[in-house]
Structures are given as C-alpha cells and as structure tokens.
Amino acid sequence: MKSHSGANIAKVIQSKLFDWNIDGKLCSIVLDNAFLNNLSDILLPRGYLLLNGKLFRFRCCCHMLNLIVQVGLGPLSQTITKIRESVRHVRSSHAGLEHFRKAVEQANAPKKKLILDVSTRCNSTYKMLAVAYEFHGAFDRLSYFYEDYKGPPSSEEWENMKIAKDCLQLFDDVTNKFSGTRYPTANLYFNDICLVHYTLKKWLHSIYPFVQAMATCMLEKFNKCWSTLSLVLSFGCILNPRYKMKSIEFYFEKIYNGDFGNEVATRIHHIKDFNCTMCMWIKWQKELIHLVILMLQVEMEAIL
C-alpha cells in the first residue's frame, strides 16, 4: 500500500471484499489510525457497509474514556503539572531521592514508590495522583530539606486533587474491566458506560466548582460518541439473558430522569427498533445462506 489514506485503504478493502465474496456484509474494521474518518464515506455509497454504516465508525471504549478524561483534566492542569514536576524532581537525582526519604520519615508517609505518569494515558495519571497524594505531607516538608525543590502544591490544591483522584478512580476501574482478557467483556460495556454517563451528570451538581467544570468538559466529549455507542453496546447487553432490556430501562431511567419530554421512552424505543433491525438482518443472512446451500445441493445432484 502506497499510503494509509482513507482512499487507498478503501481500494484494498474493496478488492478483498470481492475476492472473499463478502461485499455488503462488512460490519466494522479495526484500524490503528484514528484520523481515517473518511473511510466510511468512501465505502458507504458503494454499498459495502452493513446497515448503511451505522456500526462502522466506532472507537475503542478504553481509548474513548482516555480522551474524555484528558479533556476533563483541563481545569486541573496546573495542579497536575505541579505534582508531575514534583515527582520528576524527586526521581531525577540521587540527592533529591535522599532528601525525600527524610521528608517521608518525618511525615510518617507510607513506604511506596512514586509513579511518574505518561501524560497521554489517564490511568497512569490517576495512579500518579493517587500515590502522590499519600505523600503530600512529605512533599510539603521537602523544601526544608532540599533548597532546590520549588513549588509544591498548596493545601487547597492537595484537597482538590484528593477529590479529583476519587473521581478518576471510576474511569480506572472501568478501563481495567474493559481490558480484561480472561472473561467475556461484550456484555459489560453498556452497563459501565451508562454508569459513567450517569456519574458525569451527577457531577454537574457537585458542590465543588472544579468538579462541575470537569464534568462539563467530559460530558461535551462523551455526548459526541453516545448516540452510536448506546446502539452498538445495547446489542451485547440485550443478548445477555441476565440483562435483556431490564438493564437498559434501569439506566435510562436514571440518566434521563428529569429531562424535558418523554426522553426515556423515546430512547428505549430507539434501542428496541435498532436491535429489531439487527435481528432481522441476521435472520435474512441465515435464510440467504440456507438458500445458497440448497442451490449448491441441487447443482451437485444434477452433476452426479
């Protein structure tokens, strides 16, 4: 392939669909390039996508949650930068580490290893903040032992960070669950994504202004994915005999309770309609395969 543009990838996919005789049955494609958003626009007019491409453009849930958290951490960026630089300062030199050990003993802080995050991964940022908060007393004392250390977070910033890390724990727990490899995950997505949605709406009414600001940013990003997300994930939830429609009705009542109009009933009807369409398509495919098998049997009998 000359380049990884949407047009070139579409040409390769087109040729393979005909070779494998599966044109018109394509549900989704896993790509490692998130910027290829025009791929579905190229394939859709040619009739290659299942259900007119409704299920085609779909992000990895863990990646989506990571992007939501990155946006939400904007109001706390200065405090997070202070903590990140404090951790980096301690870990960057032997002298800094020795002075920090003295501060840890004086503050009676736990004996743990500081974690420096990867700024583009929210789960590592959460772990850095969670561990750093346990050492906040040591960081406050570090400047007495180490003159080169400047700018520990203020008491107010530490308190805000304690609240923020408790909020971020939800995303860390959900991401870890979605990343599991020893159990099925398809039936877990809908409930946990709904829990995230419901929690974000609750945070809008938090007594802490920075939590409200964080939730506003996160919800704006979340809502861009939610319409497609709820459709796709609901299918796995409904097929689980333990949940079926009960889980969808339960979470939609919580999420949309108090919204204008009959939003709950409208959303549930939309989910039911989509899943009925999916079942009809699966039934049609099954009948089509059965018909092809019968035709092949007739041809074989004629040859024999």
Automatic annotation (TrEMBL):
It comes from the Eukaryota. Signal peptide: none annotated. It holds the Pfam family hAT-like_RNase-H. Residues 179-261 form the hAT-like transposase RNase-H fold domain. GO terms for molecular function: DNA binding. This is hAT-like transposase RNase-H fold domain-containing protein.
